[in-house]
Amino acid sequence: MTMNLVRPIPLAACMLAATVLCGCQTANVAHPLTAQLSGNDPEAQLEFWHTLAERHVASNDEAFHGLLLYLDGKDDAPDYATRVATLKSRHMLPANFHAPAGNGVQRGVLAVAIVRALHLKGGWVMHVFGNTPRYALRELEYEEVYPPSSDFQTFSGTEFVGIIGKMEDYQGEPSAASAPSGELTPTSQPAPGVTP
Questions:
Q1: Which single residue of 28, 128, 148, 163 has CA 20 to 30 Å from 138?
Q2: What is the pTM of this model?
Q3: Could you please report the per-residue DSSP string of 119-139?
Q4: CB distance 177 to 194 below 8 Å
Q5: Which of 40, 84, 52 is nearest to 186 (CA)?
Q6: By the 8 A CB rule, do 57 and 157 touch?
Q7: What is residue 28's three-state secondary structure?
Q8: Residue 174 in this model has a pLDDT that exceeds 60
Q9: pLDDT (tens digit, 9 = 90+) per residue, 27-63?
Q10: What are the distances in angstroms from CA 145 to CA 55, 101, 157, 172?
Q11: Distance (Å, rounded) from C-alpha 110 to C-alpha 77?
């Protein structure tokens, strides 16, 4: 008599198979805020930051717009392609970056730009391997600008606004709230989450 033994498939193998068959989807934002809120006047910038803080996911377009507002006090780019080109010209994005505007911004991609913006040199690992998403993220965790996370993780709008605030703290920049008589300064216009 021959017995057929069926071995139970471990749960981990089932989960792995489901992941491979279904794939991993990138978080996507159907309507980035930049379509309506990309103005440079203080009121438009303030509305952008407040509205972004309510979003479940910050898109590439929203994050790059916010980064340019932080760096330059304005964003003259008329569209996402121009924002990407501007950041690439500053070596804040890899030359081969091509993610769509509506994709959730990955923490590692943004970390590369932030490390460059904050002029962080990093430790020996960054000196050997360069300013890559993984090591830029680790450097920002070390400097307490980022929370512990993965380079492929996305940000909610609130988390992204918080990162911009951490960048200001790291650089010791005054916020809009500390400007005389509520005036906005070029380096802090507008401070995310602060009402003048």
A1: 28
A2: 0.72
A3: T----HHHHHH-S-HHHHHHH
A4: yes
A5: 40
A6: yes
A7: strand
A8: no
A9: 666 667 777 777 788 898 999 999 999 999 999 999 9
A10: 21, 24, 16, 13
A11: 18
